[in-house]
Design a protein that fits this description.
GO terms for molecular function: DNA binding; sigma factor activity. The chain has 222 residues and is mainly α. The chain contains 10 helices and no strands. It starts with a helix and ends with a helix.
Length: 222
């Protein structure tokens, strides 16, 4: 238990540094959620926008709530993000930024009891942004000789050599997200719909098409 609390404390230290970095990057001073004039600075604001301060009742302290969420869900969210962005270090950054945004926007959440749903949606949205940015960079980047693989890269390579992981890379984004959330994240259809911002019917459609495409790719490689 003590070790787990120590991990959470270290993680919050990293999150606070990340918050300061994001605030400085956006040209805004960092304010704690309780400070007058505090406001979220990124995508989480979109998820909680429209909540009236007069109608929102916050019963949980932000630090306490986010600490509990972090202890329970950080690692599963990193595993999920890794499958989406295919890079462990980037996945950690995606999830840490989602927690930072959650902390900063806590008083503006429409329903604090759905905080985990907001976190999942934030992770999925950030993963999409990473992939869009990566696609633009790769499109315009000059071809270069590959670097010598590091030990970390070699460890990840063991996972990426799996046929299913490789096949997932070939799927359209929405199909890949639906399959990863369903079969790797063990989400329900309703949870997937919340995380992806689509209807349950669309979840079924993306999942079915993704499975069909995945089966086709795997049959060609075996």
């Amino acid at each position: 238990m003590a070790h787990a609390l120590e991990e959470v404390a270290v993680a919050f230290s990293r999150m606070n540094r990340r918050t300061a970095e994001l605030s400085e990057k956006n040209g805004m001073p960092f304010r704690k959620p309780g400070d007058k004039g505090a406001r979220p600075t990124d995508v989480t604001e979109t998820m909680v926008a429209g909540a009236s301060a007069a109608t929102v009742t916050v019963e949980w302290d932000a630090d306490q709530a986010v600490t509990q969420l972090y202890a329970a869900h950080y690692r599963p969210l990193v595993r999920l993000a890794t499958l989406l962005v295919r890079d462990f270090a980037t996945a950690e950054e995606v999830v840490q930024d989602a927690f930072v945004a959650m902390h900063g926007a806590w008083r503006r959440l429409r329903d604090p009891n759905k905080a985990l749903s907001y976190l999942r949606q934030s992770v999925v949205n950030r993963a999409r942004s990473v992939l869009r940015h990566r696609a633009v960079v790769e499109k315009h980047a000059p071809k270069a000789l590959p670097d010598a693989p590091s030990a970390e890269h070699g460890a990840l390579g063991e996972l990426e050599r799996a046929a299913v992981i490789e096949a997932l890379r070939t799927l359209p984004t929405r199909q890949r997200e639906a399959i990863v959330l369903r079969y790797y994240g063990d989400f329900s259809e309703a949870q997937i719909a919340d995380a992806m911002g689509i209807s349950r019917g669309a979840v079924k459609s993306h999942t079915a098409r993704g499975i069909s495409a995945l089966r086709s790719v795997l049959e060609q490689t075996t």
